[in-house]
Amino acid sequence: IVNGSNDSQKPRDKLLGGLLTADFDEDSCLSRYQSSLYRKPSPYKPSEYLVSKLRSYEKLHKRCGPGTNAYKEATKNLGHDGQNYANKSVGECRYIVWVAVYGLGNRILTLASVFLYALLTERVVLVDQRKDISDLFCEPFPATSWLLPLDFPLMGQIDSYNKEYSRCYGTMLKNQTINVTSVPRHLYLHILHDSRDEDKMFFCQKDQTLIDQVPWLIVKANVYFIPSLWFNPTFQTELIKIFPQKETVFYHLARYLFHPTNQVWGMVTRSYDAYLSRADETLGIQVRVFSRRAGYFQHVMNQIVACTQREKLLPELTTQGSQVTTNTTKIPNLKAVLVTSLYPEYSDNLKKMYWERPTSTGDIVQVYQPSGERFQQTDKKLHDQKALAEMYLLSLTDKIVTSARSTFGYVAHSLGGLKPWLLYQPTRGKTPNPPCARAISMEPCFLTPPTHGCEAKKRIGSAKIVPFVRHCEDLWHDGLKLF
Ligand code: GDP
């Protein structure tokens, strides 16, 4: 058995090349050490430097995390108004708070981004737990917690933070209300699709000299901003050491951080064992429809068929009535197709196609879609758990087709270490031609990057600043991704 959950099989490389610590109790989070049973051996090993950074981060988090004296000191008087400057003693630890906004794919990409920024700047990441994060993921750091305590002094204000907020970094920069002599104790970073360059460029060297002195950063983000961190030369030197293989950034970070809870893992393994484990080959197809009136569209269905047949991901069908000659020596291949979508019609149609007519190769095609939730219901526990289970299942397939611009799809293929075939976004209700393209790397796309690099030479587009970022295949001359 190559993969599969055969109990007699010892977990291979259960610590993922040293990425994971052995310090956790296995039963409380089965996915952490069992995931290797469901995957082929990884061709991508984490660098020793990444492993050592993670072990030092775990120590830092334990020293500064909730319940410690350092945390108490850092939060003392934080909520009080007045001259709340950082020049007073605030303890030895600095923090970055991740606030849960937008869909689950967005959340996973931004949490990974915030974590990498924290690794680079020696901050402690704490996550807003008021949404269902603890129903989705296990604790990633041993003997401490990544959950921001509910009595965090700024908790009552966080939801109202936006670009207009007086402690929003981009706004302060625009209004020139921030300088080294008046460093606030907390700053809000607005890293959303509607951010200004002032917000997006917080990581540049000149910004960092100031931001580094701020004990508390609160972040709302919905974009994967990791590709832009390479614009800062100090970070770049470090990043090259941490990730010698540049397209593996999200892949390693996600396998380190995101371990589905036992409830979600049960959904993953039950689907896997029932529908994927016995197949000779598996194909994932993620269908996300972004048009205003979303649902089932014939042109999207046609696009899925055109892409999978053109790229030889699925066999063609023979004309009605024709019979494939039975070759007794050839055992037919079983191809399992895992479809995920809010709409069940795409997989229903695919299933019908392969039932009504034989394949030209004689191969057998089995189609399975775990859920069809119809509409997005973010923050509903079971809905989000299904979404996570499906992203994870997609990441276990051999090959994958995903939808342009979808962070749900980005998480699925990057976590799986897969270069996807990207279905272009249809315009004016037409099937795009070509229907899809193979991605150059498995990294997620930063959909709304800054327009230029840190040195403000605005004529140099952001895709030309460092040699290992490019525009994304699924956006026309836009977006940024590592390869
Ligand atoms: P994006 O909008 O495609 O970038 O992905 P997000 O994950 O950020 O937001 C979409 C949300 O819609 C998901 O988190 C789910 O709640 C829901 N959703 C979209 N597609 C699917 C799907 O294929 N399966 C499930 N279970 N939920 C989906």
Describe the model.
The chain has 483 residues and is of the alpha/beta class. The protein has two domains: 48-254, no CATH class; 262-444, Rossmann fold, CATH 3.40.50.11350. The chain contains 17 helices and twelve strands. The protein has helices at residues 30-34, 48-64, 69-75, 104-121, 133-136, 155-158, 169-174, 197-200, 205-211, 226-229, 233-242, 249-257, 262-276, 298-310, 345-356, 381-395, 407-416; strands spanning 95-99, 124-127, 186-191, 216-221, 281-287, 334-341, 364-368, 399-403, 421-423, 436-438, 469-470, 481-482. The strands form three sheets. It has a six-stranded mixed β-sheet, sandwiched between helices. The longest helix is centred in the first third of the chain and has 18 residues, at 104-121. The model is unreliable at 1-8 (pLDDT under 50). Bound molecules: guanosine-5'-diphosphate. Guanosine-5'-diphosphate binds at residues 102-106, 288, 340-342, 371, 373, 376, 378, 383, 386-387, 390, 406-408.
Keywords:
single chain, 483 residues, alpha/beta, four-stranded parallel sheet, globular, binds guanosine-5'-diphosphate
